[in-house]
Amino acid sequence: MKFAQLAFLAACAAALSAPAYAETHVTVLHVSDNAAQKAIWDQIANDYNAEHKGVKVEFKYLENEAFKAKLPTMLQADESRPDLFYSWGGGVMQAQDKAGFLKDVTKDVASWESELAPTAVDAFKVDGKVVGVPFEVGEVAFYYNKKLFEKAGVKAEEIKSWDDFLGAVKKLKAAGITPIVVGAGEKWPMHFYYSYLVTRIGGEHALADAKAGKDGGFKNPTFVEAGKRLQELAALEPFQPGYLSTKHAESSGMFGDGKAAMDLMGQWLLSMQGPNSTSGKGLAEEDIGILSFPVVPGGKGKATDTLGGINGWLVSKSAPPEAIDFLKFFSQQKYAKETAEKAAYIPVVKGSESAFTDPLFKRLADDLSKTTYHQNFFDQDLGPSVGRVVNDVSVAVAAGQMTPEAAAAAIQEAADQQ
Questions:
Q1: Residue 174: pLDDT above 80?
Q2: 3-state helix, strand, coil in the chain (%, to 5)
Q3: Would the N or C end of the chain have less CB density within 10 A of its end CB?
Q4: pTM of this prediction?
């Protein structure tokens, strides 16, 4: 056999016996069905992959309720655990850290966390250690149909107090218009009413004081009064027929179809109401207005106190270094500004607010820049077991299936058992 042939065979044998090149996979699990948001995220992943040979970052999607149901099990096994995953922070995040599922990335992000809003960064700390990186801040507000308000003779600028709001509901009903759409079939949309009422009645310390057990904990007068106010609203029958079984996506489409005048929802409604409507287009941007949740007479809360999420990415305990490096890449101002320009969401990267051109998102960003207190979603803040009860009792009170006193007691009982 010739030398050249021997050399060729030797090279082939060496190639076959050498270990295969291992590509590092980074899985990012999220719940967003916002097309603009997903497009930007995929772009960022593609850009990162192109600049980092041997690394493949991939975004994967799970529907909101499926995510909440499946994630606890997924986190328990190496083969199913995502490296980075969507989080609303709060008690759920704290429970995940206590269970040992999260990585301490304090040192890893120290050099660039100053580029993010401090309150957002703090929302992803547990006992002072950083376990994730925020990307978005949001506000729950009433989104309203300007044409339906005009038809009923309702002026949004005149709705300041709870009584003003109830008066508007009555006017809309009198005009043959369904005042409010809500996806109570998933429960959490109804808890926005209860949460805002607690905050408007008890002020910024209401939830913290209840968690600390002050003045009866969750059984204190603030939580009972919030239930009574919710009952007061529900007695006007403001919601669409079948609201107790309506899913969130369906309710957003109803708003987009003009079947109700208002929806108390997070900013993601703006990207959902069109695709989920019958036409696939929904309401035109100029036909949508934003109304802050009204103040309650005698309450300690301010009109400028806001409720909403601070969303981010948690780092799982088994995440490779490339996952954290990707979060730094993800958090660049150029991507945050593109996000703002396209009104995909409200980024937490400093300086990105100047890129907003969409009037509705500019309004939300302005609200959040002037907020006197920002409260995280109650069901996330309180952790999975107590948060679930808050969602349950919010619907039960609105449906007349539970008294405000019993609802407050049920939350306290869940807190005691936690």
A1: yes
A2: 50, 15, 35
A3: N
A4: 0.85
